[in-house]
């Protein structure tokens, strides 16, 4: 018996709609999210689905699904206007075989098409044309860990799918096997992407959270500043942790919920909002330009007057 994929419940729910959306914004940029999109497309085209909607894996369409799917990845750190035009041309073209019901395009790290320039957002505007008038029999998957980066007009024309890689209990057991403390396990369960399983990468997240706490308080220990600057070239991983931490911190502060894991210090929620906006700004700049990561990361510390203690 074939092992069922971990995203099966999400897949079943969407297939039971009867008529899938023409575009999905998948809240994950992981390799498993790519696998999910390919599985979804295979299910739409399968000639002999099993258990109602699962792709059989044996029919002509399942074995030749590569003929009707395309994957787009960032080139030189961003997704170009030419790549967006190519995907539109692929979706508009006649199907390679009449047995297939639809064609699909998967855009990995889709946030790399966004721009810091509020006026010149060429890639998103080009994609918007495809979303507004989708070709018949086409499905588009935007994969991103930061769906909030997209224009509201993009988000409103896509169906959002939250994505979870594995069962959380299984992940927590793995963290326990790596000898993390109970508090660290609770913290990593909230912040880490469950595809992150190496101890070195997990320790990096724990240290990033310590820096985020200092950033919220407005003071960092010398070791935290050293870690922050030493890892400026890993800005994408670090800022992703910051985004999750401050997003949840804002929720705690606004709802008054008690928190024993994040250790949120009492502060003005507007300060957290400002930090979140600056994190987004730095991520956009570094994602779409050749700006110096160390300079941009330093600007984040300087703006919020972080003192070394």
Describe this structure in words.
It comes from Desulfurispira natronophila. Pfam families: DNA_pol3_delta2. InterPro entries: P-loop_NTPase (IPR027417). The protein has 309 residues and is an alpha/beta fold. Helices cover 50% and strands 8% of the residues. The chain folds into two domains: 154 residues, Rossmann fold, CATH 3.40.50; 141 residues, no CATH class. A five-stranded parallel sheet has the order 2-3-4-1-5, sandwiched between helices. The protein has a two-stranded parallel ribbon with strand order 6-7. About 2% of the residues have low confidence.
List the helices and strands and how they pair.
Blueprint: H1 8-15, E1 23-26, H2 31-45, H3 60-63, E2 69-72, H4 81-92, E3 103-107, H5 122-132, E4 138-143, H6 152-155, E5 159-161, H7 168-177, H8 182-191, H9 199-217, E6 219-220, H10 222-230, H11 235-255, H12 269-288, H13 293-303, E7 307-308
Parallel strand pairs: 1-4, 1-5, 2-3, 3-4, 6-7
CATH superfamily of the largest domain: P-loop containing nucleotide triphosphate hydrolases
* SSE sequence, one letter per element: HEHHEHEHEHEHHHEHHHHE
Q: Give the uncertain stretches in residue-range form.
A: 116-120
Report the top-level CATH class of the largest domain.
Answer: Alpha Beta
Give me the secondary-structure category: alpha/beta
Indicate how many domains the architecture comprises. 2
CATH topology (level 3) name of the largest domain: Rossmann fold
Largest sheet: 5 strands, parallel
Descriptive labels:
309 residues; alpha/beta; Rossmann fold; 2 domains; 5-stranded parallel beta sheet; two-stranded parallel ribbon; 8% strand; EC 2.7.7.7; DNA polymerase-3 subunit delta; transferase; P-loop_NTPase; DNA-directed DNA polymerase activity
């Amino acid at each position: 018996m074939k092992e069922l994929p971990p995203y099966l419940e999400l897949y079943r729910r969407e297939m039971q709609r009867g008529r899938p959306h023409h575009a999905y914004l998948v809240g994950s940029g992981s390799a498993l999210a790519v696998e999910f999109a390919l599985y979804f497309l295979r299910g739409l085209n399968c000639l002999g689905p099993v258990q109602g909607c699962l792709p059989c894996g044996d029919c002509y369409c399942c074995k030749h699904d590569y003929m009707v799917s395309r994957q787009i990845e960032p080139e030189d750190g961003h997704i170009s206007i030419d790549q967006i035009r190519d995907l539109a041309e692929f979706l508009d073209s006649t199907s390679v075989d009449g047995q297939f019901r639809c064609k699909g395009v998967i855009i990995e790290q889709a946030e790399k098409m966004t721009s810091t320039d509020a006026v010149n957002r060429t890639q998103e505007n080009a994609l918007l044309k495809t979303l507004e008038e989708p070709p018949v029999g086409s499905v588009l998957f935007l994969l991103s860990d930061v769906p909030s980066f997209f224009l509201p007009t993009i988000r409103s024309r896509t169906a959002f799918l939250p994505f979870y890689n594995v069962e959380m209990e299984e992940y927590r057991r793995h963290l326990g096997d790596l000898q993390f403390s109970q508090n660290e396990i609770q913290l990593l369960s909230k912040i880490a992407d469950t595809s992150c399983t190496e101890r070195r990468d997990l320790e990096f997240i724990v240290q990033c959270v310590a820096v985020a706490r200092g950033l919220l308080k407005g003071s960092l220990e010398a070791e935290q500043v050293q870690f922050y600057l030493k890892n400026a070239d890993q800005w994408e991983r670090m800022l992703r942790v910051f985004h999750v931490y401050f997003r949840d911190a804002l929720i705690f502060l606004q709802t008054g919920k008690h928190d024993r894991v994040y250790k949120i210090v009492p502060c003005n929620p507007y300060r957290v909002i400002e930090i979140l906006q600056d994190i987004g700004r730095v991520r956009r700049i570094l994602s779409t330009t050749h700006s110096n990561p160390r300079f941009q990361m330093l600007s984040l510390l300087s703006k919020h007057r972080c003192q070394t203690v």
